Amino acid sequence: MTTASSDAAHAASGATPAVDPRSFRSFAEFYPFYLTEHSNRTCRRLHFAGASLTLVCLATLVLTRNPLWVLAALLCGYGFAWVGHFGFEKNRPASFKRPLYSLMGDWAMYRDIWAGKVKL
């Protein structure tokens, strides 16, 4: 089956062809894909909550100088996001294949939620 007919078969079945996150050459190319991987509202809300708690943990780190807050920040950020992906979005986080772009996407989406560009 050719790529065109394979894509047509996917479109007809309602499935989308798998995209390898490593194929993107820039964050600008990656971010639209990132947003499609966060189409579930609960997943986005969990990302938002995790990112907000991460900022609280980092602020607490600065105030207390207790390095355990770094661990708490990582647990909040990744824990909430992974629950969103595995429990609600039903996909694997892009952070497994594109960790830097995925982290950048988390904060870009967080900014875009605050700006009203991405619906919470």
TrEMBL record:
Pfam families: Mpo1-like. Residues 1-20 are annotated as: Disordered. Residues 1-18 have a biased composition (Low complexity). Keywords: Membrane, Transmembrane, Transmembrane helix. It comes from the Bacteria. InterPro entries: Mpo1-like. The keyword Transmembrane helix applies. The keyword Secreted does not apply. The chain crosses the membrane at residues 46-63, 69-88. This is Mpo1-like protein. It comes from Polaromonas aquatica.
